[in-house]
Structures are given as structure tokens and as C-alpha cells.
Amino acid sequence: MTKRIRAFDAEAIHAGNKGLAIDHDAVARTVDELLDRMTLAQKIHEIRGCQAESIDGLYYAGGDESLGIPPYRMVDGPRGARAGTATAFPVAAARAATFDVELERRVGMAIGLEVAAKGGNVLLAPTINLLRHPGWGRAQETYSEDPFHMGAMAVAFVSGAQNHVLTSPKHFAANNLENTRFELSANIEARALHELYLPHFKRVVTEAAAASVMSAYNRLNGVYCGEHPELLTRILRDDWGFTGFVESDWFLGTRSTSTALIAGLDIEMPAPYRFTDELLHEALESGELDEEIIHRNARHALYQKIAWRLDQPETPDAGVVECAAHVALAREVAEKSIVLLKNEAEILPLDDRNGVRIAVVGDLADTANLGDRGSSFVTSSEVTTPLAGISACVKRAEVEFFSSDSDFATLGEFDVSVVVAGLTYRDEGEFIPTAQEEAEGGDLARGGDRATLCLPDSQRQLIERVAALSTRTVVVLEGGSAIVVQDWLSRVEGLLMAWYPGREGGHAIADVLFGVANPSGKLPVCFPTADNQLMDWDITALDVPHDLLHGYRYLDHHGRTAEFAFGFGLSYTRFELGDVSISRSGAGFRVLVPVSNVGSRAGASVVQLYVSCTGSAVTRVDKELKGFGRVELEVGETVELEMELADNDLCYFDAEPGQWRLDACAYTIRLGFSADHLGTSTTWVFDGTDWCPSPPG
Q: Is the overall model pTM greater than 0.85, yes or no?
């Protein structure tokens, strides 16, 4: 009997999430009783952070010993605890490339556990801003250009982390340009906002019970997100039923006093600048602010302290930080995140046998390259570089290292040259105006957006020089998002995208290069052939129009073909899909598809489900991802993958009444292994009342 695998097992994903086990009636009564005993000054203390600088990596907010109220102790971040040393996991973009929600849940659990061991109780993660353009400086921090993919990964992380600590998905909302993030306005009509830029935030709130949300620096349609009543109250609380607290992004995330509080910003972080005693009392005395608003926001701030019983902390043993299990997990994630983009004449995997000579080239091969050095920067006690990983993996072949400025005249004497090239924190990352100096030896770095997706000249020239002199060339790219490779792609035989692979990245790269691990990563962002293949991109813009088209949606609409499509990734083995079965199941569809490994190695692949609409009453994009499932198969093995497709996921947002509508039209369900490799398809028609399958042909 063929084994069946569920693509998204909600029960397993949400197991242990404390946010889903809250007795809200009991909590509400306790909070209201506590508020009745609090003075105005005590309530005010609960709506602001306590200090501008962290204490042992933690930022405190609120807390009152006389009332038994603990403080929030907040800490970044998206790839590990930013407090002392901790396990540096691969960046979120890399983890997204695994398309493995169960694995991401485990990462969330591990990071949450390490945060708790350091005394933290709020993890300022995950970053879930939609990757509108791959040039965004913080692309590495987020998961995807697709909201469905983003939502699934984010829900898994939140539910995993909330086994131990509160999470704070960020930045709410439409924060997707870094250099001008403090002033720019993301101008978005309601339909695009609800269909593209908010669904993943909605999922972490409604499915995973995210305990808090961090507001964004930028403006949305001219209004700062930290004082945006539609976002913070009408959508987040009234529509989605959010019961947690909203904290500002640090320093410039709060732009006003009364306006921000009334809109629904509950806690100013990291310290009071707009929520000072003086400004609050002035606003109260002038009538600009009502004391009831402070009471309401203090209630929001207190709610999770009671719900999560933060006055009774369970601090894990410090030994869980960088424990063997977490180190092994970091390596597993790195291995599964690596995307094989080119494998001409099956140059990979490389041979590790006597007589084989391998040149490892490039300074990045011998550099710990973990990603940007902004708020998500993590320090591990040990980091394995690609060169160190290769040296540890190879037992028989000869390995020689060439730095970027070496004499390459002898490269032709080697069987293969492995070039490690790409980007670093100097090229992309969080933009921190107060730290524009070089960051060697420090925490912060330049970061910022990329004006071009091409490699820096020095890296491109390195690849070209090596390829010109080598018998065969394999390139390992490090970076946080899409990189234009067309100028030199034809000159190399092999290409891997390794992202910023975390503390165990060097071992993972070596394992994939030598076939210890079979590459299974898939791109969470399309790689264009050139900068001008995507939408206009201006990293100095202050007013940025957003619509329904970006990424693969934009390419489809304009009839353009990416260099490497969304969801693309090769393997050392081959997979096939069998006959698909689609049937109605409740308010949606059940999709069953056999997946077989028909190659010669064990491996994993990701089946992707896209939906196209015909005859819609509104403009629809060519196709949208609405499901995916990762399967790991032995040679010759077949499993049946089960995916659920909800009617709600087929709706469009009708802006005029502000409602979701299921359009009466034809829906074509297509399955395959990437956005540009979709084979089998089935069409169902909704007539406004009932569904029926469309006859073949």
C-alpha cells in the first residue's frame, strides 16, 4: 500500500503552541481585575520600553514588582537569539528554500528555546514582509516573494517558537524597501494589500495565535504604520481577532503620542520618547487623549503577560544554547536549503578519490559569511567556512586553496575549480544610518538595498578569471536573494545557491558538493535574466506604488521567462508525478498525487500546486501558488501526497464592500516542480452556487 503524506499537517505544526491553549475568558477576567487596582502611572509604565540599550541582549518593557507584573524581555531575531553566543541558523530566505514547514517549526522551537534559556520571553521574529523585489536589503530575513509560501513557513516558525516564548512577527506592514524605510509611503490599493501584503500576517494571527506584532517604520498610503488605525485596530483586532500587543519598531517606529496610542500602538520601544510622562500628561490635560485609551492599551500590553504566565517563568538550562541537537539542526537546514541551479554533464557530485585534484577559490571560501549585521545578527561560538567544510569532508582527493588575489596560472592542472563567490553584509542588509562605518569587530554594518542584482565587479571578475583558466568550474553563490548570473553562467559547468548558510554552512556545502547530501532546495524567489526583466526598482524612492504584479506574477503577465523560476531546483535524482485525483472535501478540494523517485539516488522534491482563473469578473494574475508539499523518497519509492485547497484561498478581495468573494468562473489546478514546469492540470467550474469538474479537452 502506498504511503500517504499530508503536505501541511496542521495538528503537528501547531503542537505545543502555548498561544493556542489560552483560556481567554479567564485571562480577560484576571487582566480586568488587575487593571482596577492600577494607578494611571502604573498603566503608563506598561505601554513603553525601559531602556535604550539592551541588558545582556534583552530589551525590557513594563513590569511592576509591587503588583507581581513581570516585564517583557524582548530579543531578536530571525536566525537565532541575538544575545551573547547562540546557534546561528541559515537565514530565513535559505530556510524558505527548503519548502519544509515541519523543519521550520523545529527551527522556531530551537530558537525559542535558546531565547528562553537566556531569560528572554519575546522573540522579535519572524520577518514576514513580502519580497516585492529581490533587491530589498533585508530579503535574506524574509521567506518569499509569494504570500502563500510565506504564510505557511511563518505559521510553522511561530507555532514552533511559541512552545517556549512569545513571538512578534514583523514589520506590519509593507516594509519592503530599506534605504528610505523611515519616510517612504507604500501606496497600495485595498485589493493588492489584502491579497498580497497581509495574508501571511493574518495567518500567523488566526492560525498560530502570534502573541504580538511589531509595526513597521514606513507609511502605508501616507500614514505611518505605527499610527495607522486601519492596520492596527480595524484589520488586526476587529477583523482578525488579535488579542496580543503591538510594539513599535525601535526608536523611529513611534512618530506621535496621542495619534499612535489611539490608532492602536500599545508599546513604544525601546524606551519612551513619544510616550513620556510629560507628553502623555500634556495630551491628557489638553483633551487630545482620553485616559480610557491608556487603559485600553495597557490592557493589551498586560494581556499576554497573564495569558502566558510570565510571572512563573520556566528557564531552560543554559546548556541548550548551541547544543549538539541545535548544531545538527542548523546543518540539516543548510543542506536542505542549497539549490542546485546548473549541473552540466553531471559535474556534480564531485569525486573524492585518489588522484583527483580540486582547487577551492575565492576569499569567501575562507570567510564566515552569516548574513547582515543589523538586528538579526547572531554570534556563534564556531562557524564552519566552505573551505573548512570541504577539507573535513574530503578523505582522498587533493584540495588546494587559492585566495581571490592568487596567481591562477596553475588552475588548468586541477580536475575542477570550486569558486565561492557572492555577497556579504557590505552589499545588503538592514540599513542602519548610525553605523555606516565598517563593522569589523562590531555588531552593526552598512546594509541597505541593492541597486542591481548583479554581483559586485570583483566577484564577477573572479568567476570569469577562474572559468577561463580551469578545466571545469563549479560556482557556489552566497547571498540573501536573487543574483543575476547570465553574464557568466555559460562559462561554468555547475552552480549552487547556498544563501547565508549559518554556522554549519561549510559542512552543508561540502556535503552537497560531494554527494553526501542530495540537493533539494527550491528557489523562494525568481532569478531574473537581467535587472530590467523585473519591475522598476528605485532604492531612493519615497512614494512607491504597489499592485498585484511582482516576481513570477510580473514575469507571467509580461510574457517573460526567468533565468531560474520560482520553485526551481535540480537534484541528483529524478522525480515523476502520477495521475492526480481532485475531489471536493468540505469547503474546498482534496488533491492527491503520487510522487515517485525514478532516479538512482535517494532524494527530496517539492510538489507545487498553482491555480489559474478563466472568465473572472476581475483581473487575475496568470497563476498563483496555493499549495506545496515536500517529499523525501528512496530510490524507486512512491508516496501519495495529499494537499488541501480551500475555497477561501481562491477568493479575491472586493474593495468596495471590503469582502472576500469566490468568483463564478473556471479554476484550473496545475501541479509540477516549479512555476515554469507545470504538467498535469484539472479544471473545475464554480457557477456561483455549486462546483463541477470541467470535461477534459
A: yes
